[in-house]
From TrEMBL:
Protein's cellular compartments: Secreted
Pro residues: bias regions: 246-257
Keyword check for Disulfide bond: yes
Name assigned to this protein: Angiopoietin-like 1
Keyword Signal appears in the UniProt entry: yes
One GO term of the biological process aspect: angiogenesis
Region (Disordered), start-end ranges: 230-264
Matching CDD domains: FReD
Keywords assigned: Disulfide bond, Glycoprotein, Secreted, Signal
Residue ranges occupied by any Fibrinogen C-terminal domain in the UniProt entry: 260-480
InterPro entries, per the entry: FIB_ANG-like, Fibrinogen-like_C, Fibrinogen_a/b/g_C_1, Fibrinogen_a/b/g_C_dom
């Protein structure tokens, strides 16, 4: 029995020595070993003193071995712990990483918040702008509507005026017809009167102009009895003064009313030009040897300027069928149709050697001229007889046949015809019997006219006796 106990003790020792020497229980064994005799080392390293136990029953070897001590730390535990530790370390690292990532996320979040705030303010700003735009557009549409209304109003007014104009035009045409009929009637009555006085032997009508021009100005197929109308078809009462100057058919802008220069008076327009004035317009003149001031139109745009205009026709706005006194003193509007007056023309032209320029314009806007190398009038005692030099120009010479003739008006017959040429030609002129030109006649619209007498503004060499010119000017300038 003793042998069995020993062997079991030896086996237990071997088991402990295998497990390691650090355990306190093992140390206890060591201390016991150290106390064991040296000669026993060959048999067993440790001597176990075990209490003797009386074995009464059979000894059974347990197949499962002794129950493990729960408090004992094994190498496996350590490795487990190490593993756990490393696992925790990894987790810590992981958490660290996650914490870092979270930190970045927080920063990003802050940035995003800031950006969001900025975006919000930007959106607010844009919204305000949008509101502003909407308001502005609404205003614009209101303004547009107002403008449309105004356009509509103006259009209505325009239509109203157009219809009124048409009405007036019709009335005018009616009146013109009446005037024409009355003219014919008056002529017939006059003829009857003359017969009544036993003067049937006298020719009632002066010979017609025999000149048949080679070419009548174009646009000549319009026969008309419409008299005293301007090219805009506006009618003016005969002899009345217009409130505003009409557009100049010869391209000269009319001056503003009352813009007479402070300079002067000048002896003529040539002197005005020499004084440095280059604008055509009204100037104050005073002929040498005369104490009378004259308002005259100076033409400075034509042929170096310096022309004194003494006669002008352009729109039929002034009645030229006047008496001697009127033709002597002058009439009309200086910035429109006018006659400067025989006395003034006489006084101006006797100051030196003057030449005459007659400018004619037809109804297609073509201008021609007739220039006479010298010009002056004889005094009133000689009936303001016309004195002309030689002709040059492209209008043809229709005035030389009037050279040396005194002036005739309705109330002062000095012409070579048995009757009064002024009566038939309805103007005042240096009539012969009666003549090749009638620049103070009746202003007809459209060119070719139809009348009992040749009373239009004609220049026989240019258009014949039945072509009334659109505009005419007569002007003088000292000979160069
Ligand atoms: Ca006569």
């Amino acid at each position: 029995m003793r042998g069995v106990t020993w062997c079991m003790g030896t086996m237990l020792y071997l088991c402990i020595s295998l497990l390691g020497k650090s355990h306190s229980g093992t140390e206890l064994l060591h201390s016991r070993q150290r106390r064991a005799p040296a000669d026993d080392s060959k048999k067993c390293s440790y001597t176990f003193l075990m209490p003797q136990q009386k074995i009464t029953g059979p000894i059974c070897a347990s197949a499962t071995g002794p129950e493990p001590d729960k408090d004992r730390v094994t190498r496996m535990d350590i490795s487990d712990v190490r593993e756990i530790l490393s696992k925790q370390r990894r987790e810590i690292e992981m958490l660290q990483l996650v914490a870092d990532v979270d930190g970045n996320l927080v920063n990003e979040m802050k940035l995003l918040r800031k950006e969001s705030r900025n975006m919000n303010s930007r959106v607010t700003q844009l919204y305000m702008q949008l509101l502003h735009e909407i308001i502005r557009k609404r205003d614009n549409s209101l303004e547009l509507a107002q403008l449309e209304n105004r356009v509509l109003n103006v259009t209505t007014e325009m239509l109203r005026l157009a219809s009124r104009y048409k009405e007036l035009e019709m009335r005018f045409a009616g009146l013109a017809g009446t005037v024409n009929n009355q003219s014919v009637l008056i002529a017939a009555l006059e003829e009857r009167c003359l017969r009544g006085y036993g003067r049937q032997d006298l020719p009632a009508v002066p010979p017609l102009v025999q000149v048949v021009p080679e070419s009548i100005p174009a646009n000549n197929n319009r026969f008309t009895n419409e008299i005293q109308r301007d090219n805009n078809n506006r009618a003016f009462p005969r002899g009345s003064r217009m409130d505003t100057p009409t557009p100049d058919p010869l391209g000269i802008p009319p001056p503003p009313q009352g813009t007479l220069t402070a300079d002067g008076p000048f002896k003529d327009c040539s002197q005005v030009r020499q004084a440095g004035h280059s604008t055509s317009g009204m100037y104050l003149l005073k002929a040498e040897g005369s104490d009378r001031l004259i308002q005259a139109w100076c033409e400075h745009k034509l042929d170096n300027g310096g022309w004194t205009v003494f006669q002008r026709r352009k729109d039929g706005s002034v009645n030229f069928f006047r008496n001697w006194e009127n033709y002597k003193k002058g009439f009309g509007n200086i910035d429109g149709e006018h006659w400067l007056g025989l006395e003034n023309i006489y006084n101006l032209a006797k100051q030196g050697d003057y030449k005459l320029l007659v400018e004619l314009e037809d109804w297609v806007g073509k201008k021609v001229y007739a220039e006479y190398s010298s010009f002056h009038l004889e005094p009133e005692s000689e009936g303001f007889r016309l004195r002309l030099g030689t002709y040059q120009g492209n209008a043809g010479d229709s005035l030389t046949s009037h050279n040396g003739k005194p002036f005739t008006t309705l109330d002062r017959d000095k012409d070579a015809f048995t009757g009064n040429c002024a009566h038939f030609h309805k103007g005042g002129w240096w009539y012969n019997a009666c003549g090749q030109t009638n620049l103070n006649g009746v202003w007809y619209s459209g060119g070719v006219y139809r009348s009992k007498f040749q009373d239009g503004i004609f220049w026989a060499e240019y258009g014949g006796g039945y072509y009334s010119l659109k505009s005419v000017r007569m002007m003088i300038r000292p000979i160069d």
